[in-house]
Amino acid sequence: MSKTGEIIVLRDVLIPGGRIADITIKDGLVRHIGSALRADLEINCRGKTVLPAGTDLHVHMRDGSQKEKETWESGTKSAVAGGVTAVVDQPNTVPPLTTPGRVKDRVKLAATQSFSRFAINGGVTGDADLKGMWQAGVFAFGETFAGPSSYGETVSSDVLSRSMREISKLSGLMTIHAEQVIQGQDCLLTDHDDLRPVAGEVKVIKDVLDLNRSNGRCDLYFCHLSSADALRAIPGSTAIREITPHHLFLSYETFKPDDAYGKVNPPLRSESVRRELFSCWEMIDVIGSDHAPHTREEKDQEFINAPSGIPGVETMIPLLMALAKEKKIGITDIITKTSTAPSDILGIRRAGFLKGDRADFAIYPDELTVVLTDNLHSNAGWSPYEGMKAVFPVQTILGGEVVFDNGEFFRPEFTDNTSGTGLWIPGRGYSL
User: For 178, phi and psi rounded to 5 degrees?
Assistant: First the structure.
């Protein structure tokens, strides 16, 4: 569609604040805001909403022995079709990413398939080579399992303490999966909630914060907080607070009692807890999808045997856009929580409307639609948001290249970094 080096002009863009202007893009950056004289490609944005593209700090792209769940190609196509142009992959792969060699192999695999920018996290286990992975280019360490999940075992307090000290010395970021699991029969969504309670989530958060104070005070990022109580347990200056779309939009009451399609860790909570979480909208630092695809066959198993996880990278921003259209949240908040703040955390140039900003944009139509699984691109082949209101982008631009256009995908020819792998975003410790 477009090529590196071409001049793209987005015509008649409504910029937050009310100004309408043309945006001139060249060599991956915004070059001018105002009347544009020439372009190799013009995109008419009148009557549409143009947003800086999303950065999703929490995805599980599977691949390898789990190709049936997702591949880098299918997962990143889902991302750009949902207005997301940068993703951070979690290390609970098969095998887990705990060595520099496995990190390098993961980067190579992603680089051959990806339609979006990507970063890779390193795993935290008793035998993980944290320094080696840092030098190999991981963005962060975790999600670190302070509570068990699918393909992730709980780490001991000794391992957690030792890892905090080492990550602190590296000036790295540790991401935390905070849960406390009670033994019991896990046969229903309400059981799943009871056995992984809000009180336990809060306790683990407080324990992790206390442990970190005694072990070097590394930077912390709490993943997929599921309740207002969990949000409130983290003073804003002590750690980054991530919320998922499924905890914002879904409750266990959305599903039949034994429906494993609603099974996720931390669990979906009651409708009253969900509403209270949404009431804390201003406290949310980042919205990350926790895109965790499993196949229908896996989810159709008896509840106790079905894996936990929900696909969501493609629907995250479209669901929020529907709320904005209904005047329930603001466009500026969507930009902050899905693009600006995540980009700052990841350490990349912001996408946006200022000269010199990264030219990653998603263009949304004016009309509402609904989520239909048949229109999504994940290998999972299902969505818990089926039938819910959404606004999907018609076009997505990455680094000045159109990568998604009304259902068609175009592999980016991206070369503007120093890693040698194009779309890869290496972490701050990269030295290999």
Answer: -100, 110
Alpha-carbon dihedral sign for residues 142, 118, 100, 92: positive
- Indicate the helix (H) or strand (E) that contains 341: helix 341-346
Residue 14 phi/psi, 5° resolution? -85, 110
Distances (CA, A) of 145 to 68, 167, 168, 252: 25, 15, 18, 23
Per-residue pLDDT band at 419 (split at 50, 70, 90):
very low
Q: Which two tokens stand for residue 384?
A: 């818990």
Question: Measuring CA to CA, which residue among 230, 226, 313 is closest to residue 267?
Answer: 226
Distance CA 141, CA 133 (A): 9
Alpha carbon distance 398, 358 (integer Å): 9
| pLDDT confidence bin for 38, thresholds 50/70/90 | confident
> What is the structure's pLDDT at 262?
98
Residue 6 confidence (pLDDT) above 90: no
* Sheet with 240-243, side-by-side order of all strands: 141-146, 173-178, 219-222, 240-243, 286-287
Distances in whole angstroms, Cα of residue 98 to Cα of each of 47, 91, 119, 120, 249: 48, 8, 15, 12, 33
Average pLDDT over the chain, rounded to an integer: 94
DSSP state of 381: -
Q: Output the pLDDT for position 418.
A: 43
Is 207 an active-site residue? Answer: no
Angle at 428 between CA 423 and CA 432, to 5 degrees: 75
- Summarised one tens digit per residue, pLDDT across range 95-109 is 999 999 999 999 999
Edge to edge, the sheet with strand 8-14 lists: 29-33, 20-26, 8-14, 41-44
How many other CB atoms are found less than 10 A from the CB of residue 38?
8
Beta bridge partners of 55: 86
For the chain, the domains span 53-346
Contact between 276 and 283 under an 8 Å Cβ cutoff? The reply is: no
Q: Which of 22, 56, 290, 360 is catalytic?
A: 290
What is the chain's length? 432
The CATH architecture one would assign to domain 53-346 is Alpha-Beta Barrel (3.20)
Decide: pTM greater than 0.90.
yes
Token digits for 24? 């001139």
**What Å distances lie between residue 112 and 46, 399, 405, 424, CA to CA?**
36, 18, 21, 11
